[in-house]
Specification:
693 residues; alpha+beta; five-stranded mixed β-sheet; 42% helix; disordered N terminus
Length: 693
Amino acid sequence: MSAEATNPEAHPEARPELRRRGRTRLDLRRLGRAALLGPTSRDRLPDAIGHVAEAHRAHHPDADLSLLRRAYLLAETSHRGQMRKSGEPYITHPLAVTLILAELGAETTTLTASLLHDTVEDTEVTLDQVRAEFGDEVCFIVDGVTKVEKIDYGAAAEPETFRKMLVATGNDVRVMSIKLADRLHNMRTLGVMRPEKQARIAKVTRDVLIPLAERLGVQALKTELEDLVFAILHPEEYESTRALIAAHAGERDPLPGIADSVRAVLRDAGIAAEVQVRPRHFVSVHRIARTRGELRGSDFGRILVLVGENADCYGVLGELHTCFTPVVSEFKDFIATPKFNLYQSLHTAVATPEGYVAEVIVRTRQMHRVAEAGVVALGNPYATATPDAAADPDEERVDPTRPGWLSRLLDWQQSAPDPDTFWSVLRAELAQDREITVFRADGGTLGLPAGASCIDAAYAQHGEAAHGCIGARVNGRLTSLSSPLSDGDTVQLLLAQDASSGPAAEWLDHARTPAARIAISSWLESHPDRAMSTTSAARAPLSVIGARGGGGNAVADLPDATVRLAGCCTPVPPDAVAGFLVRGGAVTVHRIQCAAVAQMRAVGRTSVAVHWRATADCRVTLLAESFGRPHLLADLTEAIAREGVEVVSATVEPPVEQRVRHSYTLQLPDAAGLPALMRAMRDVPGVYDVRRA
């Protein structure tokens, strides 16, 4: 199945009654009559499923078709007498869905389940019967695509059906493959429905099914679904785009000539390649028209170059950039850095001497198959490495797509019991069209949507334990939890030891993933008092002031002079110090390294000799930098008290991006205990730096 339209008259959305290029049009009414009549011989497949068998054998020449025959007979028998709203026998629907998947290269198990996908939902056939006849795998897939009963769920039936389907997809992506093909055939035949129902189905397709098709890499289904939705939800724009493509069909198309030039260049270079012109589908033309304004002939399609090996892709690229003028801004290498939906290709654009700019896609034939069919092209992604190896039924199946979005989606849906919340958050999650990968400190990776912050990484890695996250290091540097992450960053998350720690309400402003937002919101709802105190604590500085002293154990060589230790550098024994006479006859004492010493000398302050008394006690001001969390001030004060140090005064500044600065003026019984005190303060969870003022 092609991911692009061929021309406006052959496009299935524009003229569904016309046949596709290169394949005889299927007459669903004829298939329906053949289905009702049944097979004429038990030794061959029924005529009605012959097209499916032909398409299947094209991808899998050695496939055993007996399973398909049995599945068809059960489906035809169970659906016999049922009719679609279009007036066709119902069996035409599972046949059409199965043909779509067969053309994409789905393996036999998928096609078997596709033929049976509506039997349990719409007939008397039970899951136990499917399991007994076709095995556990087919039964699991059929159950995954079976809708939940509306009589049990009411208005929540649709979101709960999708929830069930997504959970099943987490164990077997073939469930979603069948659902996408099912929706495509339903969209193709949606014209018999009322306009309001068409719009409702089209919106769900736009918001949920098309993003899922994109993420699973099934571009052939995604592009046709986009055009069908476009025609229903934006009929005026669709008609204008259709007219634009029809007008172009009557003009000279420069792309075939450019394709001939590309073939000649590659032939001369000795590179075996197949060169095709790929017309754009309707939505793609509409987007290009909105971006570029008036379209030229080369804007209505792209050139596709198919080669055998990865190295040939770069060889083609070199020849194209040598023999044509490359448009550097259009180059993208999705082979070295594949998209998160398995897509790989080289994208470039070249300018011809005639002034046309042609977009060129270069890929191997295997890449092309995956680009068109996505996970469907993987065959059976759960087959054991050796035929004799038995899979463990209790073992969770590995996601065959790139890690990230699917497992993340499955995680957060468990925390969204409310169907409305699940439905709205699902749409928001699927609207994220780019993924980034960040590395954990332990060597693992996290898949996150573009724009995710350290908060999202914390909940992706630690779940609810991330409530106690107090900071992060990104690429080795301390940063706030609100900091956005980029593709390839290394993130180390710092967790508090206090089990009662919780997130701040401000975290919601920086959380992008549903898992993080749901977890934070749930915690804040269950701790309303803590949520309010966390917010209000950031409003104003907190000061704790004790008895103030003067010069501590510093003595000036000036009789009766008042001695003061400078707050800017808080000297303590045995620091080298300098004293200066200031207004009021007082002597202020600074450490020699303090910047104020040079300023005092520059303005002509009188220097006074200062020395330390023999006593060991001293006064010092320390600055503690920390990540904000509940009980931090109490924990720091307790750590200071355990060292036998008296707090003279303390000031806590308002948090800035989750960071808090504490200033302590302390009376130490012995200056030698200062290093141990600073170490004790650094050991308090959330504190990342302690220094002299």
